[in-house]
UniProtKB/TrEMBL annotation:
Ranges for domain LysM: 120-169
Any one annotated GO CC term: cytoplasm
Keyword flag Cell wall biogenesis/degradation: no
Pfam families: BON (PF04972), LysM (PF01476)
Top-rank taxon: Bacteria
Name this polypeptide is given: Potassium binding protein Kbp
InterPro entries assigned to the protein according to its UniProt record, in alphabetical order: Bact_Kbp, BON_dom, LysM, LysM_dom_sf
Keywords, in A-Z order: Cytoplasm
């Protein structure tokens, strides 16, 4: 599908996975970690996040090399593919996702797949709200739930978005 750009500083950090509990009084102590270990931790974290999506029928392999995450395998729909790309791209330290996934469902098959095929990605800016993003993309702030629902389970609360996060903006049915 191609290469997607993300904000590397946004997303979940690996601090706890590297250091253990972040409640440690010595949190600022220097820690040496190899680039290979960072790649492995990011890869494992993206794998966990993909599993939480609970997408039936997906067969995805994740590899991480520095700030590049590569997804290979198959996705059951365009919507599932987009959510998997966002899962990987919203990982702290990842600035690009090389999506080499194939979609099992043919384009334009179901209404949901056709709608998801028209999705765009939006990077949240400081001060953004889902209602403001909905106003910008749909001309109506009240349609923010369409964006929230299109990004579940990546979003758990419509009031909790952060700058640098990437969201799916689906095309609304006519």
């Amino acid at each position: 599908m191609g290469l997607f750009d993300f904000v590397a500083e946004a997303g979940e950090k690996l601090t706890e996975k590297v250091l253990g509990s972040t409640n440690d009084a010595n949190i600022n102590r220097p820690v040496e970690i190899s680039p290979e270990r960072v790649n492995q931790l990011r890869q494992e974290n993206i794998g966990r996040m993909l599993a939480q999506l609970d997408i039936e029928g997906e067969q995805v392999t994740v590899t991480v090399n520095g700030a590049l995450a590569t997804l290979t395998g198959t996705a059951p729909s365009q919507e599932a593919l987009e959510k998997m790309v966002l899962c990987a791209g919203n990982q702290h330290g990842i600035s690009q996702v090389d999506c080499q996934l194939q979609v099992d469902a043919p384009e334009g098959g179901s209404g949901e797949a056709a709608e998801a095929g028209a999705s765009t990605f939006y990077t949240v800016q400081p001060g953004d709200t889902l209602s403001g993003i909905a106003q910008q993309h749909y001309g109506s702030a009240g349609k923010y739930m369409a964006i929230f629902e299109a990004n579940q389970p990546l979003l758990t609360d419509p009031n909790k978005i952060y700058p640098g996060q990437s969201l799916r903006i689906p095309r609304l049915p006519a």
